[in-house]
Amino acid sequence: MAFRLKLVPDHTTFDFFKHAWLTFGASVVATIASIVLALVLGLNFGIDFKGGTTIRTESTQALDVGLYRGAIAPLNLGDVSITQVFDPNFGPDQHVSMIRIQAQDGAEAITPETIASVEAALQGVDPAVKFISTESVGPKVSGELIWTAIWSVLAATLAIVVYVWLRFEWQYSIGALAALVHDVTLTVGLFALFQIRFDLTIIAALLTILGYSINDTVVVFDRLRENLIKYKTMPLKDVMNVSVNETLSRTVMTSGTTLIALISLLVLGGDVIRGFVFAMTWGVIVGTYSSVFVAKNIVLFIGLDRNKKPEDPSAKFFTEGAPNADH
Amino acid sequence: MLQIPLWKRVIIIGLCLLGLAMAAPNLFYPRVEAHNDAVAALEKTGALTDAQAAARAGWPDFLPSGLVNLGLDLRGGAHLLAEVHLAEVYKARMDAIWPEARKVLAAERATIGAVRRAPSPQDELRIQIGNPEQIARAVEVARTLASPVVTLTGVGQNDLEVTGEGDTITIRLSPSEQAATDDRTMQQSLEIVRRRVDAAGTREPTIMRQGQDRILIQVPGIGSAAELKALIGTTAKLTFHAVVGRGSNPDAAPGAGNILLPAADQDGLYYVLDQVPVVTGDELTDARPDTDQNGYPAVAFRFNPTGARTFGDYTAANIGQPFAIVLDGKVISAPTIQSHIAGGSGIITGRFSVQEATDLALLLRAGALPAGMTFLEERTVGPELGQDSIDAGRIAAGVGLVAVVGFMVASYGLFGVFAAVALLINIAMIFGFMSMIGGTLTLPGIAGIVLTIGTAVDANVLVFERIREEMRHAKGPARAIELGYEKAMSAIVDANVTTFITGVILFVLGAGPVRGFAVTLIIGIVTSVFTAIWVTRLMVTVWFARRRPKTLVL
Prior knowledge:
The structure holds two protein chains of two kinds. Chain A is of the alpha+beta class. Chain A is built from eleven helices and six strands. Chain A folds into two domains: 20-43 and 142-310, Multidrug efflux transporter AcrB transmembrane fold (Up-down Bundle), CATH 1.20.1640.10; 52-137, 2-Layer Sandwich (Alpha-Beta Plaits). Chain B is of the alpha+beta class. Among the domains of chain B are: 6-20 and 383-547, Multidrug efflux transporter AcrB transmembrane fold; 87-174, Alpha-Beta Plaits, CATH 3.30.70; 238-339, Gyrase A, domain 2, CATH 3.30.1360.
């Protein structure tokens, strides 16, 4: 027998409801805390949503944020934030900073003259500085982007809930919805807590998290539906436990491979997409958690009508052959 | 039992090979790119320099040469989102109507009284009349200014809406005329922007209309958005000059009061022109494609009254002489004056194709941008940053791939190897598909591919776990494999359809780099389901038929 890596033993009988008050309660608390954090601390919106300009600089000289700030201050550009960027990929003489300038009154995008004056001021204090990228978004576009972002998250959630409703029962779709809300809120909360820049790519990450989380949830639901036919008299709670245990190995494997790939990207993929990858990594973790500890709890709470004819006609349409021929 | 018919095998293997073949050029990116550039140059100019010929020979013609486009964030370049002030054109229209309106109304002075222009919003013309009780008559007269709209949607509508209230006539563009005007303005703006960006000779600029009144301009390789704005912002200047002489020496001294300008369509041809233009494009009111008396394509144009007078006098005095039409410092055409052109309209003949005549008419009409623009969004990415991102993405993808493959093989042994092979084919297919449709790879797109590396094995994991379970129920290995695939199917379909939905929403609502991410995500889902279900299954089937194992080690 060859060596096999088994993260999960062949046959597990964990009771996933044993500490339901703790696991589910933790989720509820975390969700509420995230909302509070987002409301109290607010999100660190990037220029995509707030308007303004970011300039990325690179210099062979060691970065002195105070010096840069001093150079830009006389230009009276309002709120200017300068942060140093660190990344393991940078060489020893690569010093990168991000400068963010608020949207200027009365102007859509920032004028080339303003950017030129900022660049000249910085070159005055640091002759080795280079300007790697400049992005400027006007308040009109950023206002629209916020709505596009909100709509896309809502539309994706709705589409998923409807799909789950059509493929399963309405109780499942409520469970899925709860899991999705949980994942999105926790991700937004984390971004509020650490004040990580929240821009358009984070919305893309949120949608990907929705897709990933529902993927996990659906696999559990799919097994639950199958087991409900198999164990007609077993209490719903136990059938759920059996289903989660049976799919646990898969859940851990898939989360494992996905996290491996994401962590590699998080460490080595460069600082430009770090926020994006960070959101996804976190999302995969909470998404896995929610499919095991949140979605099915909601379904259990609502209850399922098990006397209903369990065969879903659409299942035949999607599967090949006769899936239940052996029972 | 565990069999796949021959035709299916052929299709599966064929699709894999096609994916690999389409992806292959991306491994030799610089070489294939140089080859493609050379081929494009050959099509355009018909001749190649030695360097271009060498570049062309660097990649055989018979091999696929489609490449994944690199987005601005990877290649470096500039991105602008401009909003066109459509209402400016309405205002110009209203200003142009006022003299005409005054003329027709003044003729009725006896009944309606004195007329004067009243202050109004930009897109309206308000005229006050002396006798308010005759407003109906005044409206009727003013309506004669309107002409029917010739558009698909505006059948039966006039271009002007005339209403009267109290002592004021209000004239404005009808909705269908407004729509038609907007469309024309946008097309002209797009064309002008495109021409100016093309003039800079950069690679594959993206210039497209976005929504009602916006233009998205993305130019890879350009230094900065400011540079791009300067390029677009210069107004096209159209002038008509007397031709003094022509030659092929770009350094020839044109002489006092003259200028030397190159021909637009012929390399090495230069014209010496009188520095003072006879007429300028500001006085052109219209230009459209037409045919000359021999039926060849030509361009008809018309001047406004002052331009017409100047032009008429000049042509009468210079029959048989060439005159030059100069656009943005280049002589686009130097026809000979055939006759006295009175009335301010004429035609430009030349050896035009129908397309060229249409383009020239558009260029003449579109001399200057029809309306002002505001830039809503500007982004510049330096080429170094793009290259750094590509390098980082490549390393991260490589490490991720090796780690995932190691993890799979450690967990599933031989089946893990099958999954790993399928994963490699999957990545190749993503690139192959992107190359085929000319998709754009962005930085989030690279993240999408790395994410796909992680999730693509999911379908395999579902199947393998299922086979393990079925094995426990002590069925034969063949049956276990078959049941594993069958029963995992519904979970695979459900899981991927939901991810697919989010991908589509991202694509529809996202923009720029995010859309690039959505594309890789969607393609990744399709290819990963294909490779996981069919490719690994084929491998498992072939292996099983060869070995006939009594038990499965999974």
